[in-house]
Amino acid sequence: MAKRPKLRLCFIGSFRSIHTRRWMQYFVNKGHEVHLVSFSPVQIEGIKVHSLNIHFFTFLPLPIRRILKLRCIPRIKRLIREIKPDVLHGHYISDYGFYAAASSFRPLILTAWGSDILVDSVKSWIARWQVKYALKKVDLITVDSKHVRNRVVLLGANFSKIREVQWGVDLENFTNKRANLYERKEFCDRLEIKNGPIILCPRGFEEVYNSDIIIKSIFKVLKEIPKLTFIFLGKGRNKEKIIKLAKSLNVGHATRFPGQIEHNEMPIFYRVADIVISIPSSDSTSVSLLEAMAYGCFPIVSDLPANREWIKDGKNGLLVNPRDSIDLSNAILSALNISSKSKKNAQEYNVRLISVEGDYRKNMDYIERLYYSLRKKS
Predict the structure, then answer these.
(1) What pLDDT, on a 0 to 100 scale, did the predictor assign at position 58?
(2) 192 contacts: CB under 8 Å, gap ≥ 6
(3) Fewest Cβ atoms nearer than 10 Å: which of 70, 134, 172, 228?
(4) How high is the pLDDT of residue 348?
(5) Are 8-168+359-377 and 181-357 equal in CATH topology?
(6) Longest CA pairwise span in the chain (Å)
């Protein structure tokens, strides 16, 4: 079989996101030529970055900023003509994906992230128009859940152009072994944790993630199980407010806020965690959920359509109302009191499911085949 020529790929997306960087890095590692069109200057090893270097005044309302960004389109068109990619790939359809579509370049693939479809297109008429425009121009669309697939169809996507692809967990550089006693002690010493179960909350402090509900749930849980620790990761506009809330409810001693953690440092957090909580009000398939499942943590997540595609309530995790602290308290207590056999069964089920459906490399290999098929048709 003849060796396939390497691809020249051009992405338009957020360089700040670990998800975009992981996606691009996979194809760099495979030897493909990878370009990124970015609104801000950035350097990423192995990737040829083309910066538009445009400053947007953050004090302006988002709809105004969306309109002002339209002036980027001629420059994006010129850049892509100069790059001459085999495939153009836009990530986050209500923003970068729209600009990829507006370039008029084909073949074009777009990836829906969740909030672009489930939130932006609902709250903003401009974003809704941008999504609908982009979906008419695309050759293929990738989604990470059937819920998002159904929504993009309602927004005008051709069902036959949609493919389900997961961001996935890198199982090649991975161990699902729980932390041993030495590793756990070293971790606990670093965060000044004495003993007891560890509950990881990895989603950050934006309003959508309902960190306030998690804090409010802690009070009831501590009454029954006083020796446990909640670790809140990430950053966000509400972080200081959440820390103050924890202190005002007298649960600050049971919380830790180590900040933003690099992706390569995340494994130890999952390996020591007994439970992982992810309760946003809106979500598609969450990478943090897939990672929690792969590492053998017991997940408690929002009762949302995308989560129901992964979690069978009571079997391999628990589903809760994301705005009900009592419901969450009860779920945490249930998870901490399940039998060893039930916990083991949940862990084994989740690890198998991720190995089949959530393997990062399998999903990226599939994307590579899609890239080649699009180039062949162009």
Answers:
(1) 66
(2) 256
(3) 172
(4) 94
(5) yes
(6) 67
Residue 38's Cβ-count burial label (10 Å; 0-12, 13-18, 19+) is: buried
> Token pair for residue 59?
């004090």
Q: Which fold has domain 181-357?
A: Rossmann fold (3.40.50)
Give the other-Cβ count within 10 Å of 262's Cβ: 7
The conformational region for residue 319 under phi > 0 = left, psi -120 to 50 = alpha, else beta, is beta
Distance of CA 128 to the CA centre of its chain: 21
Domain edges within the chain: 8-168+359-377, 181-357
DSSP 117: I
* DSSP E strand stretches across the chain: 8-12, 33-38, 48-51, 87-91, 108-111, 140-143, 162-164, 198-201, 229-233, 255-259, 275-278, 298-302, 318-320
pLDDT of residue 39: 82
Q: What's the average pLDDT block by block, 10 residues per block, for the chain (378 residues)?
A: 85 88 95 92 86 71 79 92 97 96 96 95 93 97 97 97 96 79 93 94 95 96 94 95 96 96 92 96 94 95 97 97 97 95 95 94 97 86
* Residue 200: closest CA among 189, 211, 190: 211
| Gap between the Cα atoms of 312 and 240, Å rounded | 34
**Please, which contacts does 69-75 make with residues 24 or more away whose CB atoms are closer than 8 Å?**
69/39, 69/99, 72/39, 72/99, 73/99, 73/102, 73/103
Which is nearest to 221 in space by CA: 197, 194, 190, 185?
Answer: 197
Place of tokens 């992981």: 22
Distance CA 122, CA 143 (A): 18
Q: How far apart are CA 224 and CA 291, in angstroms?
A: 29
CA distance 141 to 127: 17
Q: What is the pLDDT of residue 378?
A: 66
Measured between alpha carbons, how far is 346 from 357 in angstroms, rounded to an integer? 16
Type of residue numbered 255? T
CATH architecture of 8-168+359-377: 3-Layer(aba) Sandwich (3.40)
Place of tokens 């590492």: 295
Residues 371 and 363: beta-carbon distance below 8 Å: no
